[in-house]
Amino acid sequence: MALARARILAGPCRLNSAWLRGGQAPWRGVGTRVAMTECSCCPLLSVRPQRGLVDEKFRIVLRNLLPKQEVTLRSLHHSEDKDFWEAFGHYISDENGVINVVEDASVGGTYVGRKPMGLLWSMKPIPGSRSGLRLRKKDVFKPLVVTVSVYGGHVSKGFSEIKALATVVTERWYTAPGVQRVDIDEHEVKGTLFLPPGPGPFPGVLDLWGGGGGLVEYRAALLASHGYASLALEYLSPDRLDVKPSYFEKAYQVLQSHHLVAPDRMALLGLCLGACVTLTLVAHSKPQCCVSINGSHVLPVDQSIDQAFLHFNKNVDKMVTDKNNHIIGRNHILPISSDPAQKVAVGSIKCPVLLVVGEDDQSWATLESAEDMTEMMSKAGNDHLLTVLSYPGAGHLIEPPYTPHFRFSNFTFQGSNQKVVLLWGGHTEPHAHAQEDSWEKILLFLQQHLHKSQDFLHQAKL
Amino acid sequence: MSGRQPCPVLSVHPTRALVDEGFAVMVEMLPPGFAVTLRALIHSEDNDFWEAYGHYVSDDTGCVKAAEHSSLGGSYDGVEPMGLLWSMKPVPGSRTGLRLRKKDVRTPLNVQILLYKGHMSDGFQDGNVLASVAVERWYLAPGVRRICTAENGLNGTLFLPPGPGPFPAVLDLWGGGGGLVEYRSALLASHGYASLSLEYMNPRIIGGTTQFVGNDYFEAAFNMLKDHPLVCAERIAVMGLSFGASVALGLTVNSPVVEPRCLVCVSASHIGPVKGSLSDVFAEISKNSNNTRYDEENRVIWRDLLLPIPDDPSKKTDVGRLKCPLLLIVGEDDQNWPASESAEDIKQMMERAGNSHLLTVLSYPDTGHLIEPPYSPHTRSSNFMSQQRAKGEIFFFYSFTKCSLHCYKNNLCSVHFVLFRMMKISPSVVLGLIFCNENTSLHRDIFS
């Protein structure tokens, strides 16, 4: 059935006539109720999609401006912690009074150049905010609400005192419609399982965060929005510091034995300390693949996590700090030991491994660790399983894309209650690129190894 | 590890969208040449189930892409990216005469997209579902404000876009079915228009007697918009469908108060007593009630009630006096209202009067009466309770809703052009607006 084509009838005023192509509308001059003091309507600002997942791109277009008009596009978010985050770009409309953020360059602001998502990833706390902030979503079933506004001229401050020309409200979601949340508290394993919509069974991902501890759900929620039954595991909290390797093995089994999880389509994904746990666990649990983000294979393997942490906590005062008194953790494991007892035996890993490395990671010596792992696996003959994504200028906290970058933030060591400021590293633009690029490749990696029907053990590389 | 069951990836982008936005449905990780059925399912507010489905075969890479691949059968065939929505029908065994209309616009239409193994046409409850995705279709964008208005005795809902304004505005009039129908206004506000849905068909007690509203009611509504601090007073359109379109035409020509910047009339007729209230109009139509016809399934066909087009100028709105642009949307197979004949007569009247340069008519073959925002299921006939009948009858509207996409976007283009026009922006630029996706046949239609 072909789309019924309109027959355009009546008069010279046809929709496909010359006035469409830039000519004068035949009704111009008629309807002289249009007085000299006609009100000017607001510019037309559109953001599509207005409701998107946090990792989806949006397209921002501004119309109905004057030609060559200078405007500022600004994003504003009021966080769950009651802080305000903003980003802004300075633009100049074209001869038709149009700005298309996908195609046009910002000439100033928190980002410059052609940066379609700059209004999100370049966000910073507004002037006067508390220091050391980090933007993290707690309630994943409510969206991040971002208002995008247009202001006349190139403005860099005082936005709350001037009137916007137009505003659009957008929602950024960690959960797709139909994703369900299941509290897990069995066999002493605590966490949150996010299930995609559908009959299942689904590939499963054990999602491990870092030394900050607590229960961090948003990445697992986002993975579930991409079709993975994903368990965000809580393993470090004030009342749980005594974490043995067996805890993670149990968590893996809880996930694998869930009736909606395909037991032969499993992955481990971890960041920071979670990445270290991932590398430790992979030999035991035998997932189909694993992802390690800014982790290291350097961890005393015969000690439990809590022992390692106690050791770490004892040495907090010996940590190097920069001139701002921000703690630099990266030297703690340098130089990389050549003693195998100090490192995970990566040479015996039997599944594909994706390493994501921020080369400006100031918290953990991830670049050096990645180099050492590559050498170990090369010697062992299993380096065909290894893919390393290494990002110059990116810091430690490589998270799902378009979330703001913070070079440092407030941090409390679990069990010590000591509040410090940790230097994570990275610079905004390359870090944003690393988040966008690595997430896309992580999803591709997971899809390749968890969805294919054939055995891909010997075809690991992306 | 070898020989695992297929674990295909079903994706819909975006999963949350406005009802007039397209989506891309894709399946990956299938074996090549694998037969599947894609199905959409809605559980309506009225507790009915609506479905659509298409039969596909995966390509060499194990993919099915509804935007590029042909459906080989089902409720739609061919390359139809949005076929899973517009071809929906009530599931077998449903009540008859149904129409899918969203009442609560604050919540989305929830659509399930399901993937089945093989080519299925029934028995879906027992079918082998390989995957499913939940999709939300919204009439309301984030930030749109919904305001119930009881000002000046008006029964309506005002939808305001987010932002400081002022906004161009639309007075939105539905048809003879009556009630307060909000969804089109909500959608217009989601596109930047302050939009007032106005209920007007319920008889009221006025001065101790039950009667229909008079012209002053509509004038008060128009003034409400005009005086609103967030509305551009000189940029107000009136949009009407069916009887609402006839009301819109009559008011614009005859009322000294209702002076819209432009007029959009969907499935309209200009026939009716010129100097009359709604009561007079109904009385006039009732005089021809023996022209009511019934089709082979006893469904009511009302189009002849207004025919033949009268020559007497007192029996039709004098469109020769229109001073603003008029966009007429016509379904050539409209069985409810003589929209085609009316459009032809309107054209002739305006040509004689010398104002036909204001008129654009979009005329759609095989299209019926209920031309609504795009992608909603079409209703060949549905139950209808008129204000003057004690029992419901089934009225035959016949609508081929695939056309709604084309004409709806054209509606908005035209309204948008006039209302946002300032400083001589090029109409072609305006038409390149969000409403016209360059990748659709719509764009090719307009610029062919």
Give the neighbour order of strands across the main sheet of chain B. 10-11-13-12-16-17-20-21
Tally of strands of chain B: 23
Structural class of chain B comes to alpha/beta
Shape of chain A: globular
Which pair of chains forms the biggest interface, and how many residues does each contribute?
Answer: A-B, 86 and 102 residues
Major beta sheet summary of chain A: 8 strands, mixed
Helix content of chain B: 10-25%
What's the multimeric state? heterodimer
What value does the Rg of chain B take, in angstroms?
23 Å
Number of helices of chain A: 7
Could you tell me the number of beta strands of chain A? Answer: 22
SSE ordering of chain A: EEEEEEEHEEEEEEHEHEHEHEEEHEEEH
Give a description of the structure.
The complex is a heterodimer of chains A (462) and B (448). Chain A is an alpha/beta fold. Chain A is 19% helix and 27% strand. Chain A has 7 helices and 22 strands. Chain A has helices at residues 118-121, 218-225, 245-256, 273-285, 305-314, 366-380, 428-451, and strands at 7-9, 44-48, 51-53, 59-63, 70-78, 84-92, 99-100, 124-125, 144-152, 166-173, 180-186, 189-195, 202-208, 229-234, 261-271, 289-293, 320-321, 327-328, 353-358, 386-391, 408-412, 419-423. Chain A has an 8-stranded mixed beta sheet, sandwiched between helices. In chain A, strands 3-10-9-5-6-8 form a 6-stranded mixed beta sheet. The longest helix of chain A has 24 residues, at 428-451. Chain B has 9 helices and 23 strands. An 8-stranded mixed beta sheet of chain B has the order 10-11-13-12-16-17-20-21, with helices on both faces. Chain B has a 6-stranded mixed beta sheet with strand order 2-9-8-4-5-7. A 3-stranded antiparallel beta sheet of chain B has the order 1-3-6, with no helix packed on it. Chains A and B meet through β1, β2, β3, β9 and β10 of A and β1, β2, β9, β16 and α6 of B.
